[in-house]
Amino acid sequence: MTTQPARVVWEADQPTQARLEGDWTLPQAQDIVTQWPQTLQTSQLLRIDVTTMGQLDTAGAMLLLRVLGSAPSADDLKKLQGLQSAHRELLALILTRRDMPLPAREHHFSGRELVIRMGKATETFWGQTRQLLGFVGLTVQTLAMVLIGRRKLRLTATVFHMEQTGLDAVPIVTLLTFLVGSVVAFLGATVLRDFGAEIFTVELVAYSFLREFGVLLTAILLAGRSGSAFTAQIGSMKSREELDAIQVLGLDAVELLVLPRLIALLIMLPLLAFLAMLSGLLGGALVGSMALDITPGMFISRLYEMTEIRHFWVGMVKAPVFAFLIAVVGCLEGMKVEGSAESVGRHTTAAVVQSIFLVILADAIFAIFFMELGV
After folding, report:
1. All structural domains of the chain
2. Separation between Cα atoms, residue 362 and residue 370, nearest integer Å
3. Contact at 8 Å (CB) between 263 and 151?
4. pTM flag (> 0.85)
5. Would you call 278 exposed, middle or buried from its count of C-beta atoms within 10 A (0-12, 13-18, 19+)?
6. What does the pLDDT look like over 63-86, one tens digit per residue?
């Protein structure tokens, strides 16, 4: 359908009468505005012939109402001669909507609203907890079926993720723990110097990194690095409908996508935690030799004599648990992506936050457990 240009034709002998022609639509709005004299008082118009008017949309209707006056009413529509019923309904609808009062916004905060928000947050938390527990059960079941030979382990994918999550993370893990070890040794020596006990800096660094800092810092780094990567990878596949294609082919997404990432993290996080412990001890030894007159030989001798091997195993026991939590949360959030890029970003952020929270919570539970055991 061709568009007819809008025209405003003035009666030569009747300056208070006009005839509107063509289509009064959005593409013609600029032409309509330029044709209408700014000096004409719209209240002087007695009659407007719209018999030859073609199409009329919302933009054209608002311009037509502007022709009728600054504050037109339903009575002003009588000036329009030959108005089609559809056009009259559109104009009446615009007049009705214009006169509707805007809803008042409430700025006060009530106790009822607080209770509602707390209830919604509790419901959301409970729903996410149920989803996580269900996914943990599904993952453990699939892993058990792999161990008994009823499912197949994707060895190539597992080795690839071992390189991605473990080998590629060695530089950042060792550098960070080296710096933290140096800081812990320096701060500890600053406090212990007042008591003449700088030599106990060795035990401080050893206990803190063997029991806590080594595995905890590694887990937090992998939660932000590998956990977010798991969510982004699986979420992108979900948004491109690749997971649907996997199901159509009769494959199990947990076996194909989750288990290789889980097993890779279960293997690599303890190794990275071990490197983090060594790196933290090296940072403490460097500060001791440079600022505390503790030679590397004295540091190693003190470490060998005063540090028991049980502190090392206390830290290493936590590593598989942290790896399991990070992998499961990262993969679950990837499965929950709804199909848009915004959803991928939102669930990636949620995966990092939830993983770090669960890691710190589990570390606190381990600390209480080992304290009660006297380990």
Report:
1. 7-99 (3.30.750.24), 134-373 (no CATH)
2. 12
3. no
4. no
5. middle
6. 777 776 656 666 667 677 777 778
